[in-house]
Specification:
The protein has two domains: 309 residues, no CATH class; 200 residues, Up-down Bundle (Methane Monooxygenase Hydroxylase, Chain G, domain 1). Helices cover 81% and strands 0% of the residues. The chain contains 22 helices and no strands. The longest helix has 39 residues. The radius of gyration is 27 Å and the shape is elongated.
């Protein structure tokens, strides 16, 4: 029982360290990495290189794939280039296995990592800016190695009770069963890197044979697609296409790798005896991902066409329906237009509120095509509205509606700048205000009220105060070397973006109240 506790605790510490290190590296890379990924993915081949490098830097193929899903949904990169990133992410994810093997098995840095954890933790608690992020990355690496040590200790005792004979064999059906174990393990742990580390530890302890470990790793390649599939649920068609392409690529690659493993099992074991089992397993893992990329890369255009047929475009359902017959009566037309504006505002508020949440959800922002079409229809509807000169209240309502449309259009434009939301949520000082804005927007998405307008005004004053203080701190920190100049610009732009989003939301609610006050029938609804 103690052995199982040690193994489970080691896996938990490893996962915590992996998450901490990945988050710190992703935060350090910041919007620059997201921008680089979008700019450099100009061909499928460059996408492979960029995807592999990005995944190796941030130590997460799932994060790279989810970013790519978002970029395609936002129209920043085409489908064929995104496929290259997916191929490369599968190559880049093997870097974690090599890192674990070299630092954890060959150099055995567990004791040194435990010693280094103390100063790294102090940097996390006391430092700011790049030093704090570096401290989190080092602390995450230390926890990863400490967890690996604990896993090895638990697995070494477990190896005395569990042998390769207790697991499915290396026949065809046995390999399929082992791949299924790897798939389930990765889905449960939500990290193919951690799952590969478990396989390496079990292999090192003798609980797995080399061929069994290789079959489990093949299944892990399929399991890692689960996160991207979740990220695409409810998203636009391009987002769902990228997620399906990711699953298909890994399924085909794994389907080819399993029979290949059955054929070359003897050669793989010979390689393990010539080097060591862990190195042979990682060579096989890297090799079949490289082979899969080499197979798919020349066929990228055809693959994209196949995915387009598998995930067809759904008939677009209009967000709002503006009956042109309502234009015959000014009050009816204004009520119809205000109802449409409420629906559009609710969708925009909810999408921005979901993006400024913990964890952020960008799916609704990537599916705002119907909102853009609805705004165009509403503008055309209001342009055709004719109000007699003596209908002063109706003319006031019409003017307030036009103001709403203007601010909703500005908000829609800001919805395409999702990198700013990421910067705000990654900053410990700005996070609280950003989450408060997100919560307010989500409430507005459900039921915009006059009370919320007052709440937004108070929140706006708080955000302005926090922004001014943080801007001064950033400038002083840049002079002291705590922040780089790109960091200062990124944070300044993000704070300005947040203030404008809040201003647009407040104006929409304000002018909505004016419209309803000007229309007696509306105020009763």
């Amino acid at each position: 029982m103690t052995t199982l506790f040690a193994l489970a605790g080691g896996i938990g510490i490893f996962l915590l360290g992996m998450e901490m290190m990945t988050a710190a590296l992703r935060e350090q890379a910041g919007p620059g990495l997201r921008g680089l990924l979008a700019r450099t993915t100009t061909t499928p081949l460059r996408g492979v290189v960029t995807g592999a490098a990005t995944t190796a830097v941030i130590q997460s193929s799932s994060a790279t794939t989810v970013m790519t899903v978002g970029f395609v949904g936002a129209g920043l990169i085409p489908m064929t280039h995104a496929l290259g990133v997916i191929y490369g992410a599968n190559i880049g994810t093997t870097a974690t296995g090599w890192l674990v093997s070299i630092l954890g098995f060959k150099l055995d840095l567990g004791a040194f990592a435990a010693l280094l954890l103390s100063p790294a933790s102090l940097a996390v608690l006391l430092a700011r800016g790049p030093f704090a992020r570096a401290g989190r990355a080092v602390a995450g690496l230390c926890l990863l190695l400490v967890g690996l040590d604990l896993m090895q200790a638990g697995a070494s005792e477990l190896g005395a009770h569990v042998t390769p004979d207790d697991l499915p064999g290396t026949g065809v059906m046995g390999l399929i069963a082992l791949a299924g174990i790897g798939l389930v393990l990765t889905v449960v742990m939500q990290s193919s890197s951690a799952a590969v580390a478990v396989a390496l530890v079990m292999l090192d302890s003798g609980a797995l044979s080399l061929v069994q470990g290789a079959a489990i790793v093949v299944g892990m390649n399929v399991g890692t697609t689960f996160t991207a599939m979740l990220a695409s649920v409810g998203g636009s068609r391009p987002m769902r296409q990228v997620a399906v392409a990711n699953v298909l690529f890994n399924l085909v690659t794994s389907a080819l790798a399993l029979p290949l493993l059955w054929v070359v099992a003897g050669g793989l074991e010979g390689l393990g005896r010539a080097t060591d089992a862990a190195t042979a397993l990682l060579i096989f893992h890297t090799g079949f991902n490289l082979a899969g990329t080499a197979l798919f890369l020349p066929l990228t255009d055809r693959f994209a066409g196949l995915v387009a047929r598998l995930v067809p475009d759904r008939p677009e359902i209009k967000l709002v329906s503006l009956d042109r017959a309502a234009l015959a009566d000014a009050d009816t037309a204004l009520l119809t237009a205000q109802t449409a504006a409420d629906v559009i505002a609710g969708r925009l508020f909810a999408a921005l509120g979901a993006a400024m949440n913990r964890p952020p959800d960008y799916r609704a922002l990537a599916a705002l095509g119907p909102v853009r079409a609805a705004l165009d229809d509403l503008r055309a509807f209001l342009a055709d509205l004719r109000i007699p000169p003596d209908r002063g209240r109706a003319r006031d309502a019409s003017a307030a509606l036009l103001h709403q449309v203007d601010h909703l259009t500005r908000m829609l434009a800001r919805c395409g700048q999702t990198a700013h939301a990421g910067v705000l949520l990654e900053d410990r000082i700005l996070r609280r205000g950003s989450l408060a804005v997100g919560a307010t927007l989500r409430r507005l998405g459900e039921a915009p009220t006059a009370r919320e307008a007052a709440r937004i005004a108070r929140l706006g004053r708080f955000i302005d105060h926090r922004r001014d203080r943080h801007r001064r701190g950033l400038l002083l920190g840049e002079h002291a070397g705590l922040y780089s100049l790109p960091d200062v610009f990124a944070h300044t732009d993000a704070m300005r973006w947040l203030g404008r989003v809040l201003h647009n939301a407040e104006r929409v609610v304000f002018y909505r109240a004016q419209t309803r006050q000007a229309l007696p029938a509306a105020s009763q609804s």
